[in-house]
Design goal:
It is built from five helices and five strands, in the order E-H-E-H-E-H-E-H-E-H. By secondary structure, it is of the alpha/beta class. It has a single domain, classed as Response regulator (Rossmann fold), CATH 3.40.50.2300. The chain has a five-stranded parallel β-sheet with strand order 2-1-3-4-5, sandwiched between helices. Strand 1, helix 1 and strand 2 form a beta-alpha-beta unit. The N and C termini lie close together (11 Å).
């Protein structure tokens, strides 16, 4: 079973995203801050990371940049998941190496489509 890390500080969004992922057959681990996310990434090496942009501590953009510049984590696909959904935000996420950008509120069909593209 593939493991997905959800890094999200909003309880409602965390619950919705986790439920959609579990229903799609994925094992879900969660983190609510950049520090928590780093611990869980080091411990579990997830197959995919859903990353909020606005987080306590480092932003999702900063976390993405660090993960993509580290040879141990650079191959993990990252999907940004945020209310910040302007074209500039999406372009910035893409430039930092994220594979996709989902806007909140999460659309279940769009989520499943992205999962199928990124996890084979």
């Amino acid at each position: 079973m593939n493991t997905v890390l959800v890094v999200e500080d909003g309880l409602t969004d965390m619950e919705i995203l986790s439920r959609y992922l579990q229903q799609a057959g994925y094992s879900v681990i969660s983190a609510t801050s950049s520090e928590d996310a780093q611990i869980k990434i080091d411990r579990t090496k997830p197959d995919l990371i859903f990353l909020d942009v606005i987080l306590p501590g480092k932003s999702g953009f900063e976390i993405c940049r660090e993960l993509k510049s580290n040879p141990e984590t650079s191959q993990i696909p990252i999907v940004f998941c945020s209310t910040k959904n302007s074209d500039v935000d999406k372009m910035w996420g893409n430039m930092l190496g994220a594979q996709a950008y989902l806007s909140k509120p999460i659309n279940r069909e769009e989520l499943v489509k992205i999962l199928k593209q990124l996890i084979h």
